Predict the 3D structure of the following.
Amino acid sequence: MTARIAVFGAGATGARIVRMLVASPRVGAVDVRDPDPTRLRALAGSEAELARPTARAARERGEQERGTTSGQPVSAAIRSGKDPDAVGRAWASPCTRLLGNTVSFGQDLTVPDSADLVVVATPAGTQARLASDAVRAGAAVVTTTNEILETRDLLALDSQACQQGVPLVVGAGFMPGLTCLMARVGADGFDLVDEVHVAKAGTGGPACARQHHRALSSLAVDWRDGRWTRRPGGSGRELCWFPDPVAGRDCYRGALPDALLLVPAFSGVDRVTARMAATRRDRLTAPLPMMRRPHPEGGVGAVRVELRGRRGRERSVVVFGAQARPAEATAVVAASTALHVLAGSTEPGANGLASINDPESLLREVAARNLRPCRFEGFALSRDNPA
């Protein structure tokens, strides 16, 4: 039986999530909701990209699908300049169909009653309300937030999600998200993990860039010696090495939610910190409004996870990392998580990916979509063994 998924947000991340979900034979229909008709037009206008994976999924289901809007292909309706008002009316309607019953578009931000699962890829600060509505409707939820206050609000929905018997995944993105998975799976090689340190470089779409800007000037939250500590954003400079081509970057504290998601998954952990790469100009302008319009999508970014703990009697340190465009990476993690949740193995409640059931299986699904984590392999230098 195939599932019906609602995706809120058709930006740089949401559009990619839609394409990945449509390509899965486990998904029967996807409702795309975004208040901006321009984004919906852009997504529907990429019909050629969208149709290829859809055709593959349709063949696996033994179906043939053909998309129409008022008797003509959606792309033709959008690109035709003969009746611009008709196009506007089509997008103002509650639901415009693309490729038969596989994908539908609309500007209404209400959760469909028929949705089995809801993916929320809207800008940070708007996801908690949608997630709450979805939980009340009895749908599983996957969010992509990287905003600290919103993460708290989503985690506060834990009892409501448990009552409804649905899982609510908080922060299924590049960081948090992939970093949580790498930390959880990497911890299996330790007898005890007492420190977790994560860092990221790069931003995705415009909403991600704006959140990055705000985070650098806001209070950071770390876990230290069994209690929460607050530090100024932009402090705590540390040189962090990421996978090539990102390499070494100066990283600083910021209002990042990672500690809120990692601490519950690591019993007895002493320290959990999160940092973000920033330039001198980033730090100088962080308290001000953004000086220029953010790019539609950033370049290659990266994340890293450093685990410290014990193996037997020895102290050990392991570093994992991954590199990708942040919007692409977030889409891969969110779509993989959605399909993982549909498999039915995720317990009810609000949690990050570090607390999800069978994290190793989910990490393999992520790697299968070409987002492959790597492990840093170093060696000791000595006078007898020069580099």
